[in-house]
């Protein structure tokens, strides 16, 4: 249970950090914030890679590969589309 | 340190103990890299606090992700790369094509879909982990892992199916209206209870994976039923909430894998989605429970459309509106979802440029729930090259409307309905609105007098200082631009 408590501690602290930063983001950028944070939540890809690379043939690598596909859509699509939008906001500078 | 150990590896490999030490230090290296990635995510989000630093912020986030992926690929637990490469290529190509081809008007659908994939990835990873651990029979002693697997399964599945339904509604594959049946709340409650009960059973007796898939199925059904009864106008709230869920799903996967970076990244996204959800709810003066489970009741005893509009609505031609704009010194454009539907953002930009050339100040007043997701209108205007300094938040522009010569409302309705201020019995009573009625002249571009999502007539359209220019948003604005150029 010890690592669970450590995890919870980190979770709660990170939520506070998130609140502090995200309340400062102007409404102009709320859509890119959603797509960009979405790309970050694609970090599940790390777990997907470990599962897909277990070596032995079985359910774990197959499920892992499905997860790799989904998470990499999330990561690649999310960061790219966010970049596309943010470039539009920058153009006039 | 790691490099050093690799260097000396041949020398010390003979001893198993040293091997274990190398493993452990490899893990330390990986965890430190994960820490750097987490910091990059935080710095990346901080970059989004200003449009000037935002592109760099997004790149920082992306480089954090790249670092995390590269480091993970070096993990000794990974023995084969075939499936990984296949998955990365398939997912990467789909993601890139989606991101580069999607229209800005369709951004809500895109984000809904991405939310869903995030949730899906979480429950698949949790399922894969369950399958890996089952034969080792460590689960009985490591209850926290099973708890996290169950949580990932439930949150991930709700996020996936809920997002797919939201996507279907936004893409108009299914009706955007609220779809509900009697007793839906009870069915939802029963499904949720079954899912949680099943979760407890899996935690107490993790001997088979069958229960997990049943759990995912139940939670998936719940996700569908939770989003189906939510109507079009409430979509900004739902997307923001699902955004939050996708973060929580990632965080719970972090608990499954005992990976702090996933927990940090997931909770940042969870917090972000929650804040946006709250902003949207405040902007509609409704509680989250009311948005999710409530129905907007038609107001009793409120005025009918005939009473409000009869004989008072003044319809004008683009030429007449052009004459009004000719003498205007300050104009404020209020874009609504109607503008997005008619793809009129470029026409609006042309109108703005024309007016500015004639010495008229032009600003854009944006209600938080205009469009189908938070900030949607801002992105559309930015796409049309409107300067972000000219997009003004509701609270900043409202005190200034009395000094505005012309307020041009395009395809917006409920968010400019003064009834929200005046009639406590109205379904939108207390909802913050843009006070366009205080401008000297209000020009409303709208197809007809049909009500908005709240289903009530809008006295603004019949006000003394309001002129109605009926027509499709883009077409009407183009006609107005034409009339102004001729004048």
Describe this structure in words.
The complex is a heterodimer of chains A (93) and B (487). Chain A is mainly α. Chain A has a domain of 65 residues. Chain A is 78% helix and 0% strand. Chain A starts with a helix and ends with a helix. The model of chain A has no long low-confidence stretch (mean pLDDT 92). Chain B has 487 residues and is an alpha/beta fold. Chain B folds into two domains: 214 residues, no CATH class; 182 residues, Rossmann fold. Chain B is built from 19 helices and six strands. The N terminus of chain B is likely disordered. Chains A and B meet through helix 1, helix 2, helix 3 and helix 4 of A and helix 2, helix 3, helix 4, helix 5 and helix 6 of B.
Care to give the gist of this entry?
The complex is a heterodimer of chains A (93) and B (487). Chain A has 93 residues and is an all-alpha fold.
List the helices and strands and how they pair.
The complex is a heterodimer of chains A (93) and B (487).
Chain A: H1 2-22, H2 30-41, H3 45-52, H4 59-90
Helix pairs in contact in A: 2-4, 3-4
Chain B: H1 2-12, H2 16-47, H3 51-73, H4 82-101, H5 107-133, H6 143-170, H7 184-204, H8 210-227, H9 235-257, H10 260-284, H11 288-293, H12 305-309, H13 318-326, E1 330-335, H14 337-341, H15 345-357, E2 361-366, H16 376-383, E3 391-393, H17 394-397, E4 406-410, H18 419-422, E5 441-446, E6 466-470, H19 473-486
Parallel strand pairs in B: 1-2, 1-4, 2-3, 4-5, 5-6
Helix pairs in contact in B: 1-2, 2-3, 2-10, 5-6, 5-9, 6-7, 6-8, 6-9, 7-8, 9-10, 13-19, 15-19
């Amino acid at each position: 249970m010890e690592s669970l408590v450590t995890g919870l501690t980190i979770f709660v602290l990170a939520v506070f950090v998130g609140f502090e930063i995200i309340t400062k983001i102007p409404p102009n950028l709320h859509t890119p914030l959603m797509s960009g944070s979405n790309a970050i939540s694609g970090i599940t890809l790390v777990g997907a890679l470990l599962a897909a690379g277990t070596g032995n043939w079985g359910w774990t690598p197959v499920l892992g590969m499905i997860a790799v596909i989904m998470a990499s859509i999330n990561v690649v699509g999310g960061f790219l589309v966010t970049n596309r939008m943010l470039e539009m906001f920058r153009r006039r500078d | 340190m790691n490099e050093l150990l690799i260097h000396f590896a041949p020398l010390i490999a003979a001893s198993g103990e040293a091997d274990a030490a190398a493993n452990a230090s490899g893990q330390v290296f990986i965890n430190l890299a994960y820490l750097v990635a987490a910091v990059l995510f935080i710095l990346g989000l901080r970059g989004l606090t200003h449009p000037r630093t935002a592109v760099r912020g997004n790149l920082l986030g992306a480089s954090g992700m790249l670092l995390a992926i590269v480091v993970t690929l070096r993990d000794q637990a990974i023995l084969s790369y075939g499936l990984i490469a296949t998955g990365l290529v398939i997912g990467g190509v789909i993601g890139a094509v989606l991101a580069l081809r999607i229209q800005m008007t369709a951004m809500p659908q895109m984000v809904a879909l991405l939310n869903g994939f995030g949730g899906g990835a979480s429950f698949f990873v949790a399922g894969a982990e369950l399958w890996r651990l089952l034969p080792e029979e460590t689960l009985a002693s490591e209850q926290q892992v099973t708890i996290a697997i169950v949580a990932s399964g439930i949150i991930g599945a709700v996020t996936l199916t809920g997002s797919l339904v939201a996507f279907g509604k936004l893409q108009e594959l299914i009706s955007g209206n609220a779809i509900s049946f009697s007793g839906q709340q009870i069915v939802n409650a029963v499904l949720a209870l079954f899912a949680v009960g099943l979760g407890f059973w899996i935690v107490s007796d993790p001997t088979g994976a069958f229960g997990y898939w049943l759990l995912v199925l139940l939670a998936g059904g719940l996700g569908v039923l939770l989003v189906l009864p939510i109507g079009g106008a409430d979509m900004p709230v739902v997307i923001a909430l699902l955004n939050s869920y996708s973060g929580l799903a990632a965080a719970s996967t972090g608990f499954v894998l005992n990976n702090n970076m996933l927990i940090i990244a997931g909770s940042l996204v969870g917090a972000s989605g929650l804040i946006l959800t709250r902003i949207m709810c405040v902007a509609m003066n409704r509680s989250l429970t009311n948005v999710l489970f409530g129905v907007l009741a038609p107001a009793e005893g409120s005025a009918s459309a005939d009473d409000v509009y009869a004989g008072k609505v003044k319809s004008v031609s683009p030429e007449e509106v052009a004459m009004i704009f000719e003498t205007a010194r300050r104009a404020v454009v209020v874009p609504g979802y109607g503008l997005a539907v008619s793809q009129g953002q470029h026409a609006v930009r042309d109108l703005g440029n024309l007016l500015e050339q004639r010495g008229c100040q032009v600003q854009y007043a944006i209600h938080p729930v205009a469009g189908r997701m938070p900030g949607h209108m801002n992105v559309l205007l930015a796409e049309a090259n409107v300067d972000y300094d000219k997009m003004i938040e509701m609270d900043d522009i409202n005190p200034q409307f009395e000094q505005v010569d012309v307020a041009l409302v395009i395809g917006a309705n409920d968010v400019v309905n003064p009834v929200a201020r005046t009639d406590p019995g109205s379904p939108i009573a207390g909802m913050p609105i843009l006070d366009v009625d205080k401008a000297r002249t209000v020009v409303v571009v709208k197809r007809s007098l049909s009500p908005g999502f709240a289903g009530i007539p809008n006295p603004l359209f019949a006000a003394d200082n309001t002129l109605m220019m009926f027509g499709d948003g883009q077409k009407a604005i183009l006609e107005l631009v034409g009339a102004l150029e001729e004048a």
